[in-house]
Specification:
The chain has 141 residues and is an alpha/beta fold. It is built from 4 helices and 6 strands, in the order ααβββαβαββ. α3 crosses α4 (106-122). The mean pLDDT is 84.
């Protein structure tokens, strides 16, 4: 079952990463909700690992109300996953599951992408492309 999830995530990655897709990088699926991050890393062999981190970064109107704590929490989450062989970059899919009063704004999408980028560098689990969705609806990359 996880092989098809992995394949679907790779198919959804931007076309300019065709060569990287051939290297079969890990795909990090990060679910953001109120002060909680749940991460699943899918691997090319169909296996996956799942971890959860709680931190104080949200409020009732915004999923990321405080940037530095969410970066630290994401870095802690990514560090729970093993490094990919040869230091290959991975892809990330972030899904905000928390219902927000005004939905997810463009600046919040940017903050999520920046937080994942900063956390991936801090944890040495490089993520080259991040897709962001709100309750399953994908925002353009």
């Amino acid at each position: 079952m996880n092989v098809s999830v992995y394949q679907n995530h790779l198919k959804g990655a931007p076309k300019q990463y065709k060569l990287l897709k051939m290297l079969r990088p890990p795909v990090y699926e990060i679910e953001l909700s109120n002060n909680q991050l749940i991460g699943v890393c899918y691997y090319k062999d169909g296996s996956s690992k799942r971890y959860q981190v709680n931190a104080n970064f949200s409020n009732r109107r915004m999923v990321i109300a405080d940037f530095l704590p969410v970066v630290e929490a994401m870095a802690a989450l990514l560090l729970k996953f093993p490094k990919h062989p040869f230091g290959t970059n991975g892809f990330a899919v972030a899904n905000v599951t928390e219902e927000l009063a005004d939905g997810l704004t463009a600046i919040e999408v940017k903050a999520i992408r920046e937080a994942i980028w900063a956390a991936s560098r801090q944890s040495k689990r490089a993520v080259i492309s991040t897709a962001v969705s709100y309750q399953g609806q994908l925002f353009s990359q």
